[in-house]
Amino acid sequence: MNKPEDAKTREQLLPYGRQWIDEEDIAAVVNVLRGDFVTQGPAIAAFERALAERVGARYAVAFSNGTAALHGACFAAGIGPGDEVITSPITFLASSNCVLYCGGRPVFADIRLDTYNIDPDAIAGQITERTRAIIPVDFAGQPAEMDRIMALAKERGLVVIEDAAHALGASYDGRPVGSLADMTMFSFHPVKHITTGEGGVIVTDNDTYYERLLLFRNHGMTRDPEKLLANDGPWYYEMHELGYNYRITDIQAALGLSQLGKLDRFVELRRSIARTYTEAFAGMEGLVVPYQHPKANSSWHLYVLRWEPERFRGTRREIFESLREENIGVNVHYIPVYRQPYYRRLGYDAKACPNAERYYESAITLPLFPKMTPEDVRDVIRAVRKVYERFAIL
Which residues contact 75 (CB under 8 A, 6 or more apart)? Predict the structure, then answer.
């Protein structure tokens, strides 16, 4: 292990995530800008077809962002007032907010302390007569235990909406994420595996969900002659549901389609960096490297190190700030959702899930993105070792 004095500080902050846009991506966007459609044109359908094929689904419906996509999925599943939806507390706010948008109530089931994904046994313990759906979250790119979750949902008659914002390119038990759940959401935020700037999608094999998703993202409106209740002429349209303007643009879709062609390379680079980190930190007592479920093949959106509090002199905040002082742009993913002031006002317990609490008090996310250079990776390793030796109780 390097001694602290051997570790040097970077000159600029290395972010925890970043997009990789090349000239091919720029050209794809420019071609759209020079064409006839910048929105509601053919690039959207082309992107949706390519993405659905890539993840093994029949349909894909693109949205303006991942949160909008989850909202659409809850609408398609029929979530409404009085309905409960079970999800993970270790996730971004959108995974549960989408339930609130529809008038339902999120219910948080605890995570496994090895994978950091929602525990199927905890899900089973939270199911009531009001439960309508489950939203498992593929945290950090590792798929949740979808075989057990789908079996449980089938037994209880529940809809499964897989929040795979972190998991494009991942697989579970040999099947690609996107082919496992009733509906699956992918996000295209710039820190994700591919980007459309902002954007998201729901993929599904279900005809009814597909039609409701299309309706929802476009004001609840249709021009389809087979669905119209009347027809006053070629200009005629009808609003059948209270939908939203959640449309994605052709500009975004063109970028996404170009990026999709690079997905395999991006994922392999992420996996390579993750392997390098794990090898570097193995054997450092008090540091917990990410565990991978034997059925899961992660696409590594995040690399989370846990610093076991009892093994270090400083607090997690002191360790975090020391890494930032080394210009390593660490982050924390995530604050348990039920801790948020809004959720507290709704009556949620601030420490409802013991495993989530234990995870949160020790987790620090390291930089991980395809455009990182070997020197970037070495800088992260040097900084972690330097801070480790400063704070560890050896």
Answer: 102, 212, 213, 216, 241
Q: pLDDT, tens digit, for every residue of 171-228?
A: 999 999 999 999 999 999 999 999 999 999 999 999 999 999 999 999 999 999 999 9
Which fold, 23-260?
Aspartate Aminotransferase; domain 2 (3.40.640)
Between CA 144 and CA 135 the distance in angstroms is 10
197: left (phi over 0), alpha (psi -120 to 50) or beta: left
Across the chain, what does the average pLDDT equal? Answer: 96
Domain 4-18+263-391 bears CATH identifier 3.90.1150.10 = yes
**Sequence-distant (≥ 6) Cβ neighbours of residue 78 within 8 angstroms:** 132, 159
The model's pTM is 0.96
285-339 confidence digits (pLDDT tens):
999 999 999 999 999 999 999 999 999 999 999 999 999 999 999 999 999 999 9
Is residue 295 annotated as part of the catalytic site, yes or no?
no
User: From the candidates 3, 192, 295, 386, which is the catalytic residue?
Assistant: 192
